[in-house]
Amino acid sequence: MSVLDIKNIHIDFPTSKGVVHAVTDVTLSIEKGRRIGFIGESGSGKTTTALAAMRMLANPGFVAGGEVHLNSLDGNTNVLHLDDEQMRRVRLRKISYIPQGAMNSLNPVMRVDAQIWDAVVAHEGGLSQADLQARSDTALDGVGLDPKVVGRLFPHELSGGMKQRVCIAIGTCLTPDLIIADEPTSALDVITQRHVMQTLREMQEKIGAGLILIGHDMGLMAQSVDDIAVLKKGVLVEFGPVRKIIEDAEHPYTRELISSVPLVGGDSFLSAQASPPKGEKLDQPLLELDGVSKQYGAVTALHPMSFALDGEEPKIISIVGQSGSGKSTMGSLMLGFNDPSAGQVRFKGDDINAMSAGAKLAFRKQVQAVFQDPYACFNPFYRVNHALKFPYENFGMGGDVQTAMEEACTAVGLDPSLVLGRYPHQLSGGQRQRLIVARALMLSPKLLIADEPVSMVDASLRATILANIHDLKDKHGISIIYITHDLATAYHVSDYVMVLYHGHVVEAGPPKEVIGDPQHAYTRLLIDSIPWPDLDRDWGDADDARAALDELARIGGTPETVYRGDIPGFTLGQG
Amino acid sequence: MGRIPLSYLLNRLFTLFLTVFIAATLIWIIPRLSPVNPVDVMLGRMASGGGSVENSGAILAQLTERFGLNDPWYVQFWLYIKNTLTFDFGISTASFPTPVASMIAAALPWTLGLMIVSLIITFIIGNLLGALMVWEHTPRLWKVAIPAAMVFTSIPPILSGLLLMYIFSSQLGWFPLNGAYGLNTEPGWSLDFAGSVLYHGFLPAMSIVVVTFGFWALGMRGLMITVQGEDYTILAKAKGLRKRYILYRYMIRNAILPQITAFALKIGMLVAGQVLVERIFAYNGMGKLLYDAILDQDFPVIQGVSFVIILMTAVAAFLVDLIYPFIDPRIRHGA
């Protein structure tokens, strides 16, 4: 029996530039107890379609046509015909919503249990304090949180995974017919993601609700849902059982979404260049960390670490780790944005934190950076030319700026006539991120430090941007430090991988060894937690996810390093 | 949350004391940089009153001695600090020999009454209207009317005061033109007197409310827009909570937090008074006292009033520091 039927729904957003048809003629049914995945890129209408069922479209969106039937309603089942009070009663009691932002989805000034109570009271009226307490205890217990402790806490005292489990507790406490989970794990690392997703599945199965899982990660979908609906620009392009979609997709867009997920051990998305140009021969290593550590107050972000990258032959060194592993701290230390608490960071033999102003300028020119957020990297008041031109002129590069900009754009696969002269907000995230790479390239640096360069870009563009970055090594002879949480991309682009955990290197070596055949318990845990778009690969159940957290606790704070072999041109200090 | 740790309390108290001490020192130094000699000014005032002053040299010397101006600076400073801490601000040079402390004591309650009441009214009205500007369920008429009312914010308080006086006192005769209480009422703890004070305070308070509520409303509007887009507000709606509950417990409750800090800082500033409002309504508060003292170059009064203003601001900030962790659990009484 279907819980929700969406029939020929159209959703429009009137804007100053005319009406945007966000969703066009989508028809779908969600069966009781079944999980359905809505997948598509940002702007594909996946969230909009799901929120229309709750009548919670963002302003100024409205349903321009079609019907949404919630079959457990008495009488008229079309939710679009309910008045505001009837609709309010449907929310949470019939259809619940688990939001995307794990960090911010709970009211910061209310205790956790009070945020369950207000939901219960809004639908069931005044209950006694003891009854309310019993309800919140049951709800928290169901998602594996200790109600005695967690109930009394404020949201800022919880980790991201715990917050999201509280949201699941709220979303299931009134046993709704349908749960809409909007990228519930996108802000979490893979180990926590697996745990939260398994908790959600467990609760959904227990109460027998239908589940709409909104997301862009084909791997997560493959491991979590029964059916997949693929949306592109507001149109439902393909719908079917998960195995059919993953193994035998009909629509080319679906196949593109699946193939854009890089797989460990799968085919490389890079075209290998026979002989990358050699860098200059140096007496000193290009970049050297000598016993570098970093402490923030009592917290050690990075334990003493030494390595040397000689730079004669360009290399891509990946630093892989979860949030809080110290990988971004390493990036900022290498860029000289942060002073190390101990040790030295040396560039061509000079301590970068003890350089003269002139030497520092030369260092800045030769060491460029690409950061995570392509939206925050441009000054919104200037055309993008300014961002490209300014460093070029500031560093006194000879030659014609216009030509240099056009060449750099072409090198990263952008048409100069389409991007130059525009404002940042007129470009997509992918275009902006490629422009950042182009800007770095214009200065012909020796070293590029790329901190999560593709984590905020749509999946289908990730491979392209990584290929651009890879080209910097192959065609322009630039060495690259690639900082990421994504093991699969690190597997493909890098020459050497270091896995970071709590500021320690736990495993290091060539990617085929470290990621292809992990030996350290932590690396294995990471690889096992990745959801692959491969239905024959077991992602485990809720118990496995909990066992993984126990395993993590056993690894503790001072793990051993496993060395998996060396490559020429890079030495990691041992011990 | 919970109990305030002693170390935190001591830390904040020390900061409070240091702030007041530094401010008091500055208050002492700044008039001494002025080329005006207060004793000359006094003598000048006597001369303008009685034509010529005999033995002016002797009087000058005597006054200089009386005010302690012959002592070395550190003795003067020490006496100043010692006296200030006991709220002894010396004797007014303009209204000689009235002690400054008693002048302030006479003016302060009026200002505190008028200004704090109007500040609280403005704070509530301003924040509520600011919140309603953003809330999606606000009636459409209000959404037009509130921004339109912002026009008043651009009127200087003297004008709004005059306007209110013209309409409500001169034309309608509903409220008195000036004074803090009726001439035929005896000051004291009587119902009659209290009524008279409220009656006289209404127009000055309104003239402040009308011109200042926009400050709170606009600030609140910006904060509400942020809160409105927060995931917790969206989740609150998805939880099927009632819209008023969401407005108060999820939106205003979070948006108001920075406004509370601003409120504390405003308290100090308001003690200085809406000088012009007090002038127009002939309201005998701190603003009028300060205004007159500046005109008369009455240094002890200026010093005393300035000190009280700074003390109020520092104490208000201190109290907010203590209260804040109770209203925002993310802020902890840290070491």
Overall description:
The complex is a heterodimer of chains A (575) and B (335). Chain A is of the alpha/beta class. Chain A has 21 helices and 21 strands. Chain A starts with a strand and ends with a strand. The mean pLDDT of chain A is 88. With 335 residues, chain B is mainly α. Helices cover 73% and strands 0% of the residues of chain B. Chain B has helices spanning 6-33, 38-50, 56-66, 73-85, 100-134, 140-149, 157-171, 191-228, 231-238, 243-255, 257-271, 275-280, 286-295, 299-327. The longest helix of chain B has 38 residues, at 191-228. The chains are: A alpha/beta (575), B mainly alpha (335). Chain A binds chain B through residues 54, 56, 59, 88-93, 96-97, 99-101, 104-110, 118-119, 122-123, 154, 156, 167, 170, and chain B through 136, 230-232, 234-243, 245, 249-250, 253-254, 327-330.
Architecture blueprint of SSEs:
The complex is a heterodimer of chains A (575) and B (335).
Chain A: E1 2-15, E2 18-31, E3 35-39, H1 46-52, E4 62-70, H2 84-90, E5 95-98, H3 112-124, H4 129-142, H5 147-150, H6 160-172, E6 178-182, H7 190-207, E7 210-215, H8 218-224, E8 227-232, E9 235-241, H9 242-247, H10 252-259, E10 287-296, E11 299-309, E12 316-320, H11 327-334, E13 342-347, E14 350-351, H12 357-366, E15 367-370, H13 384-394, H14 401-411, H15 416-419, H16 429-442, E16 447-451, H17 459-476, E17 479-484, H18 487-493, E18 496-501, E19 504-509, H19 511-514, H20 521-529, H21 542-555, E20 562-563, E21 570-572
Chain B: H1 6-33, H2 38-50, H3 56-66, H4 73-85, H5 100-134, H6 140-149, H7 157-171, H8 191-228, H9 231-238, H10 243-255, H11 257-271, H12 275-280, H13 286-295, H14 299-327
